[in-house]
Write a structure and sequence with these properties.
Length: 283
């Protein structure tokens, strides 16, 4: 099974009719896509009531890939005591319980920062995170190339398999050391995550010096040729890992929804027609 969705549901104007209220966007989103990445959980640990509402207003077969809170992956660059770390993980797990209990949790995504290199200390941190998450499915994504050098690639993949991590495969600009190569190898027989970040090499780390570089980092529209290549890759991955969760994160220019719908069509998946007033935006 291949499920395709987007990172967040707030900014994809292609699929929303004019004047739609913010609180109605997730319902509208779920008409077109069967999964979504919750990225707001990276910035704050939500109250369970909010997750419960999201689970309730989506179809029974809809799923959520929930991004781990930034304090859990070291993005805050703060030092936490054991008590603080324990409470952080427990609060996060409590927050996602309604989604998990409702059978709608795809996985929790641990995306580690670009400075998180391959070292014994960081391997220990990953092991600790997995232990703290218990039996909750967790996906692992690196941003430092040292994890997938020719010398470390097989060791990293074996480690992920042994520890029970789902591989989050990336299509992203090759700007070293703060990016990873495309490694098309699942580490879990049940599920694999594939995230499309675009290929805007100039904007990946500094946006070419632009002040708003974070807003242009994911400015990229995949061509039909690139998507056809990916359709073939996904078909192979599906044979190796039963559930392939695809997330388009290339939305600095609003391209994610269009690219996702194009890939859905290429794969022959169930595609919903856009409202007439939105069709011109697709071109």
């Amino acid at each position: 099974m291949i499920s395709i969705g987007l990172a967040g549901w707030g900014d994809h104007e292609l699929i929303y009719p004019t004047g739609i209220k913010p609180q109605d966007r997730l319902k509208q989103y779920s008409k077109y896509f069967s999964t979504v990445e919750v990225d707001s959980s990276y910035y704050a640990i939500h109250k369970p009531a909010l997750m419960e509402r999201w689970a309730a207003e989506t179809p029974s077969d809809f799923t959520f890939l929930i991004k781990a809170y930034q304090g859990m992956t070291g993005h805050t660059r703060q030092s936490y005591s054991e008590q603080e770390t324990h409470q952080m993980f427990e609060s996060f797990k409590e927050s996602i319980e309604p989604v998990q209990d409702g059978g709608k949790l795809k996985a929790v995504l641990f995306q580690y920062p670009p400075w998180f290199d391959c070292s014994r200390g960081n391997v220990s941190l990953i092991r600790s995170a997995k232990e703290r998450m218990g039996d909750i499915p967790v996906a692992l994504e690196f941003r430092h190339q040292s994890w997938f050098t020719p010398e470390m690639r097989s060791k990293t993949l074996s480690f992920m398999r042994d520890e029970g991590w789902i591989h989050s495969i990336c299509d992203e600009p090759q700007v070293f050391p703060g990016s990873i190569p495309m490694v098309l190898e699942p580490t879990d027989s049940k599920i694999t995550v594939v995230r499309f970040h675009g290929r805007n090499a100039g904007g990946w780390t500094s946006g070419g010096g632009a002040k708003d570089w974070r807003e242009v980092r994911y400015l990229y529209r995949y061509s039909m040729e690139e998507l056809r290549e990916w359709a073939a890759r996904l078909t192979v991955l599906e044979k190796q890992s039963g559930d392939i969760c695809v997330i388009f994160n290339n939305n600095s220019g609003g391209d994610a929804a269009a690219n996702a719908m194009q890939l859905i069509e290429l794969l022959g998946l169930d595609k919903k027609e856009l409202p007439p007033e939105q069709l011109e935006m697709f071109e």
